[in-house]
Every structure is written in structure tokens, then in C-alpha cells.
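hey so i finally got around to running the thing on that chain from the lab meeting. sorry it took forever, my laptop kept dying and i had to restart like 3 times. anyway pasting the input first so we r on the same page abt which one it is
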Amino acid sequence: MNGVPKVRVFGGCFAIFLAVATSTALQADGPQDVSFWTDGSVPPTLDIQVEPCSAFDSCCDCSDGCCDCDDERCGGCCDFGSACCNKRLLGLFAHSDPCFHSFISPMTNPVFFEDPRTLTEARAIFLRHEVPAVAGDGTIHLFAVQFRAALTDRLSIIATKDGFVTSTNTLIDDGWSEVSLGLKYNLYADPRTQRLLSTGFTYEMPVGTPRTLQGNGDGEFHLFVSGGMQLGDYSHWVSGSGFRLPSDPSRESSMWYWSNHLDCEFVDRWYALTELNWYNWMGAGQQAALTGVEGGDLWNFGSLGVAGNDIVTNAVGVKYKHSEHSEIGVAYEYPLTDRRDVLENRLTVDWIFRY
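ok and heres what got predicted. didnt touch it at all, straight out
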């Protein structure tokens, strides 16, 4: 974001939403010839060709005395080797990747749909989750905080599940969620074309409160891949897919999911978004308490009779990106399939603080 107020034509954003399924790959711009002194003056005789940066530690904030990915003097990206590029939070964690700062993070399927960027952040999440009658009715609230910390320009630690649950559901009582921890690695990042791809894993520790239907089994592994690209000038597509694989298949079920996020910056710093999540239960557990009903993205009951079941949900929402270091959003999610399991509808609010 360059700080200049912009107003988009709503029809343009809507057209991008409709065309995303058939959109072709964006063409990468070549290196640019630029001229500059480190003090900002532009001599007419000095021409420097700047290659795209391959690591975010070469793309620092101009306010710190470095050039960033939007600095036209640097051809879009540069490597000064400036001291500010080596600053670390608590002496350990690197800056979030600024070369993709026009992206926003996905909101739904919050435990598993991972932002492909390398980030250092805290993400506060509030969920208001309505449960259908088949799963005991009532309302569940989740208060959680996710953490991500960049160790290098490509490798980061991710803590994606934790929090406290309050519930009026007849089956799920108040208590603590399980805790997930893992690693994410950026396989590919091209600031010129605004495309990136990452992979990673988490392990969900069975430490939650049993009366909250957490803490069953011997833990669960999550293997995932996540990618993103810019569409036109103001829109982005992020897609993630992965497998949930329990250590004890008799106590928990296995799942494959595919999540997609599409956004459009319709006014400067304001984004409209829509997300689509597809959950497929590949294997069933052996627990008979909720036969035929599984727990979606927040629970894993290990229920009998769920193998082959599919649930598709859609969400619509809006995000405000106050700066590269903070964004806040709200999204409303609802099932598109007749099968709902534990999800009647859900309101998600998140607030991200990014380093």
C-alpha cells in the first residue's frame, strides 16, 4: 500500500471474482533499469539493473533507511544489506515477508488453512459457532490466539490451535482446546509476479479438556501445502489443502480438506472476501457416541460411519488492513451441503498484529 487513497469500481472486483476459475497466469515483469543514490537523489549517468529479491531480508521498510518492494528507485526490490534487515524480535525472530504485503490472511478453517507467507505475528480469533440439533444444538464460543514466528526468510514456527471454549451445547462443555505446533517452509516466492508456495506440518497434542470433547486419542498430524497469487491490481487468490492423520485411527477420524480464499481491495485498505472449504472424511474412528457425525475443523470425535462424508461451506466477509503490521476482519460462514454435522453457521472475527 502506497498511502495514496484509492477507490475501486465494484464491478471490477466482481468481474475478477467471476473470472477466477478461468484466469490465466500473470506474466512476470523483467528486471528494471533504475538510477539512484542512497540519499534518494537521481543522477542521470548512473544506471543500475536490480534483480528481484529472493529473500525477504533484502526488502526492508524505507522508513528504516532501506528500500522496500514498492520503491520504484529500486526496480521493485533491492538488496542493500542494510543493518535494519537483520533486526530480530527478541533477538530470535525475523521480520514478516514485506514483499507480499498487499495480501490478506484467510479467515475460515482457521486451524488448518495456512497463509503461505513467512510471517511473525500474533492472531487473536473469536468464533461464535451455532450447532445444529443433530449434534446437540446450542452455541459455542472460542477465544484463541495463534502465533507464527519466522526463523529464516523461508522457515517459520506455527502454533495454530489453542484457546478456551464456552458452550451451551448438550454434548460439549466449557474447557480448553487442544494445542497444535509445527513448522512451515516457503518453497517458492516471486515478488515480481506476486506468487508463492509453502508447505508444512503440525502436530496436535491431546492436552485439551475431555468434557469439551478435546484430548481424545494420541494426537493428530496435519500435512499441508498452501499457495497464493495476485490477480490483476487489487485481488488475490490463496488456496490450501492438507490431510489430518490421527496417531490412533480407532480414536479419531482422518480427513482431507481443500480451502480457497478470494479477495478484492475495493477501497484503499478495505477488502471484500469470499472463502470456500471442502471437507472429506477419508476414514472413520470407532467411537459410537456420535455415529455419522464428525467435528469439522475444530473437533475430531472419531465417530463411526463418517468415511466418505463431504461437507462444503462458504463464507463472505470484509477485512480492514490498517497497516502492514495490523489487519482486522469479520466473516460469516454457512454450509452449502445438506450435511452439516456440527456447523449450522459461524461468525469469525480475527485481529492480527504482525512484526
